[in-house]
Design a protein that fits this description.
412 residues, three-stranded antiparallel β-sheet, 16 helices, 48% helix, globular, binds protoporphyrin IX containing FE
């Protein structure tokens, strides 16, 4: 394959159902410049090293205007950039402020204590399958679940959840833009901008409310702000809340959907999980390696010349780190194209690595673990309706658009 073809082949929809042979081709040259501009990095150790290199920037303002145009989602001009798109030290300040009310060491129990509530959401969604011989796992389960979870995490009042779901759906649709005419795309962009503005003003109102009368939720804790970093400004809180929604939505949808797809393709593993629910912990790690919801990180750039694997990536070059390819690198993983649910030594790149490693990973893991164990336990004789299923267009956040599952009944 010539370098001309690389990027276009990765983004070509025809390769969406199985991009892995293409990644194997890519790994023959660990760092390669594509004709369209970016440097593609496809081997595990090179990706890992760049993710830990302070000369690699996540601030999209450092990208050339040309490279910046390839990024599908525009930022809200009225809000500061979310910390996923900032470099240290600004990134670290905001991430620490958001982590304080979310996880260890200051709030070690926030995610753990959501377990019961998450279980109820999962059960409620599966109960909705009753009297149906077939469901679309995406629309009927994987899509609504993570948004409901983010609502409960932030502390969105129950009566507003439906409105919040509406905004989340519109924002998610913009991540996989319509492939129609320019007019259709423009119309979709307008709807997206309106949803983003409405969501931002809704959140600003709620944050102000929580500042005056705090409750036990993340918005109240962010608004109360304590500790050596002081407090987030109101717009930083809005930007961070929207980041949690966007970063935690489509990704979790895809992990759960890819999970069921993989289990239904490997009935022996499905049966093992049914017999031994504890298997779900390593199994979800293997899924994050084998079918990672974030296939590649296309928004990084270099702040200096970087020598790696015999190539010099020049300062200012756009960089695509192909996480899903690193996860299948035979130099790092034994038998990488096999799905081994209890694989030992599984330091995959599914949640990335380094300073931007996934903030929400404890929650994402718990959501996927609960969802998969319950789906496998309750669906009687589940079968795929179509294999491969139809995929979304997005090559970065890759996952099925629909996943038809037929079954004989529902266990209690
Ligand atoms: C299976 C589900 C998920 C996957 C595969 C995933 C994957 C990732 C990856 C690869 C990154 C690195 C992005 C980059 O460097 O540009 C990331 C960052 C991030 N994720 Fe997740 N994520 C998931 C779920 C979640 C959830 C549920 C939340 C929120 C509750 C979340 C919040 C974030 C945030 C805030 C960042 C930015 C971290 C930073 O810049 O320091 N993610 N995630």
């Amino acid at each position: 394959m010539t370098s001309v073809a690389l990027l276009r082949q990765i983004t070509d929809y025809a390769n969406r159902a199985d991009p892995y042979p293409l990644y194997a081709e890519l790994r023959k040259t660990p760092v390669v410049r594509d004709e369209d501009g970016p440097y593609l990095v496809s081997t595990y150790w090179e990706i890992h090293s760049l993710l830990h290199d302070p000369r690699v920037s996540s601030d999209t303002r450092n990208l050339s205007p040309e490279a910046a145009r390839t990024i599908s989602q525009e930022e809200d001009p009225n809000l500061p950039p979310p910390f996923i798109k900032l470099d240290p030290p600004e990134h670290d300040r905001l991430r620490r402020l958001a982590m304080r009310p979310f996880g260890p060491p200051h709030t070690p129990r926030r995610v753990y204590e959501m377990r019961g509530e998450l279980g109820e959401i999962v059960s409620g969604l599966i109960d909705g399958f009753r009297d149906r011989g077939q469901v679309d796992l995406v629309d009927d389960f994987s899509y609504p679940f993570p948004v409901t979870v983010i609502c409960r995490l932030l502390g969105i009042p129950r009566e507003d959840e439906a409105r919040f779901h509406g905004w989340a759906d519109t924002i998610a649709a913009s991540i996989d833009p319509a492939h129609g005419t320019a007019d259709e795309r423009e119309a979709q962009l307008q709807v997206f901008r309106q949803a983003r503005t409405d969501l931002a003003s809704y959140l600003a109102g709620l944050i102000e409310d929580r500042r005056r009368s705090p409750r036990d939720d993340m918005l109240s804790a962010m608004a109360a702000g304590y500790g050596p970093d002081g407090q987030m400004s109101p717009v930083e809180m809005v930007s961070t809340s929207i980041l949690l929604l966007i970063a935690g939505h489509e990704t979790t949808v895809n992990l759960i959907t890819n999970g069921m797809l993989t289990l239904l393709r490997n009935p022996d593993v499905l049966q093992r999980l049914r017999d031994d629910p504890d298997l779900v912990v390593p199994l979800v790690e293997e899924l994050l390696r084998y079918e990672p919801p974030v296939q590649l990180l296309p928004q990084k750039t270099t702040l200096a010349d970087i020598d790696i694997a015999g190539t010099t990536i020049p300062k200012g070059a756009p960089l695509w780190l192909v996480l899903a390819s690193g996860n299948r690198d035979p130099q790092r993983f034994l038998d990488p194209d096999r799905f081994i649910p209890d694989r030992p030594d599984n330091q995959h790149l599914g949640f990335s690595s380094g300073v931007h490693n996934c903030f929400g990973s404890p929650l994402a893991r718990l959501e996927a673990q609960l969802a998969l164990t319950e789906l496998v336990r309750r669906l009687d004789n589940p079968r795929l309706v179509e294999d491969p299923p139809p995929y979304r267009h997005n090559a970065v956040l890759r996952g099925p658009q629909h996943l038809g599952i037929a079954f004989d009944g529902l266990r209690q």
